[in-house]
Amino acid sequence: MTDSTQTTGTTGTTTKRAPATGGHPVLAAGLATFAAVILIIAGFLDLFRGIMGIAHDDLFVAARGYVFRFDLTAWGWLHLIFGVLAIVAGFALFKAALWARILGIVLAGILVIVNFLSLPYYPLWSLISIALYIAVIWALCVVRPDDL
Predict the structure, then answer these.
(1) Which of 15, 91, 132, 136 is buried deepest, with most CB atoms within 10 A?
(2) What is the C-alpha separation between 118 and 99, in angstroms, rounded?
(3) In this predicted model, what pLDDT tens digit does every residue of 58-80 receive, in sequence order?
């Protein structure tokens, strides 16, 4: 990727053209930062949700006849573990490493599934979490490594 410069006339003004790939590095860095911040925030919220599920599993309403019915303490541990991993991945995204992006996408995908499976226990928060993690996946998928 090379930038080309052009000097005009007697004024000596120099203009820079965009990279040949047509990328927008500021936008790409902004999306990666957005994904990192949302992943950290949503990870902390899942961490707290996991602590609630472990400590006070009677706070959640259990749905009868739910196909994916598990012990609520087990759901708490899932949210706790994946919440901590999401926080770590979010902080790793500030390094702009490819492995951090891949880890962020994979963890956000897993957390979408975990939150989907826990819909009957806490429906509104599960839907909000799913939307946050989908936004993270989108932001990490549209950023090209060349733009960072």
Answers:
(1) 136
(2) 28
(3) 555 555 665 556 667 878 888 89
